[in-house]
Every structure is written in C-alpha cells, then in structure tokens.
C-alpha cells in the first residue's frame, strides 16, 4: 500500500487533524450529534469517561454505558462537516497513522446519529422520534466519491427526480441506512420510520422563506406527497445523506434518529427541547 503524503492524510501530532483523535481514543460504536453541547448530555449517562477532547466544533467523549465502551462526537451542522468526520474516523481505525499506510484488515464502525429535525407530515407531531430508513441528499458530498448505490437506491432517486422538478444544478442522491442498526432502535411508541431529506441549508434549502424569494416554492409540498414502493418522506435535517453514503462506501454502518422540533405543514416549532432530547438519548443508549 502506498504511503499517504502529508497533505493527503492530514495529521497533527500523530492524530487526525480536525478531530484530534487517535486509535486508542474512540470506540467501535459512535453516537454522532450535530450540536456540540449535546455531547455532554449524552456522556452524562456514562458511568465512566476515559477521554475528552475538543477542537473547533468537534467534541468527543469516550467512556462506558452499562459496561459497554461508547464514544459520542459532535459533527457540527451540515454534510461538509460529515465529510471531515467520516473520513477522519475511518482513517483513525483503517489507516496506520504512523506508517501512513492503509491497514490490510479493515474495521467496521457503527454510527448512530441523534439529531433534531423538521417533520414534513401533518400526522408526525413535534416531539416524535423520526428514524431514517434512508436519506435523500440535496447536498453534493456524495457526488465526489464512487458510492456503490444499489439498484433500489437508484430507482428511488429516479422516481423522486421525476416527481420534483429541482433546478438543474441540484442532483439528488439516495442512500439507505443500515437496516440492522435501524431496527435495533425502532421499538418506542414515539418512533416513526420513514425517509429523511438532508438539505444543504436550513432556510431556502428547506423551503423556508424569510426575505429571499425561493426558486422552488413548492419544494416541501412536492416532497410531502412523494411516495415510492410504500416509502414516504417524513423529515428534513442536514447530515444523514453523507453519513449513510460515506458509511456504505467505507464499510461502516449508520442510522439516524431525530427528535422532531418543527412540524412544517402544521407550522409548529419547539425551541426548548432539553427534556425531550434527554429522553431520546436515554432510550437509544438503552437499546444499543
Ligand atoms: O440538532 P442537530 O443534530 O444539529 O441536527 C439538526 O439541527 C441543525 C439545524 O438546526 C442541523 O444540524 C440539523 O441536521
Ligand atoms: O426544521 C428543522 C429543524 C431542525 N433541523 C433542521 O434541519 N430543520
């Protein structure tokens, strides 16, 4: 295997550059959250914490919950950050950082994103837990890689592209979550399973209009009434498409569960959700 150059595998004092992590400092199951302050909320459930680090918006705590080693890491907002997080976590486990060479034996990580989202169906009230069976990417991260999308994933994307007319410059992609990981956290009365749309922004890209007019004003209605082989779109958030696509390509497993803090068709928004988020975290940790 060829040695990765300093500008390609970017390290700082032997650790991956943005996350400041090395191989001993992460577990095989990693909880990903967008908000950096949610890391402490997750690790407040741990009985021990062995490692804590922060660089920029990336905070990581590694410890144990019910005797099981777990890490929790903040990604910050957006799929551009997910590109950094997934590539660097994969490098930590699958590249020998000292020799700068890919390892022969690869490790597979489990990623569970616990986020917030906006529901896109009238019958999914704020406070629901939305579990992603797959994510439509309206961002462009996956377009820079060869992702082994399945025929079913390509068919879903094609059907969606026919249903919504997006500006020519936006090319959606679709990637499923890991079914076994998804199933492991589906047993809760507040859980609704469905398809997530990962947007490249919070306002216009999610059909929110403040002062700027929108180029696709009926985007949300189009997404809400789309269905393909019994699958419906249920929510908007900003990370899962890249998380699922890069995990698939790198041989990792990923799923997402989000607390609905907005309901777009009903016009509702929950700005203070600490208690609801704590309950969701407690549920997920108890299941994995
Ligand atoms: O609460 P988090 O995990 O950050 O998730 C959602 O909230 C942010 C937008 O407010 C985006 O990151 C979106 O995906
Ligand atoms: O409406 C919402 C709420 C949370 N996160 C999003 O990306 N959108």
UniProtKB/TrEMBL annotation:
Top-tier EC class? transferase
Give me the reactions it catalyses: uridine + phosphate = alpha-D-ribose 1-phosphate + uracil
The record, for InterPro entries, names: Nucleoside_phosphorylase_d, Nucleoside_phosphorylase_sf
Every copy of the Nucleoside phosphorylase domain together lies at 30-267
The EC number(s) this enzyme carries: 2.4.2.3
Q: In its UniProt entry, what is this protein called?
A: Uridine phosphorylase
Taxonomy, top ranks, is: Bacteria, Pseudomonadati, Bacteroidota, Flavobacteriia, Flavobacteriales
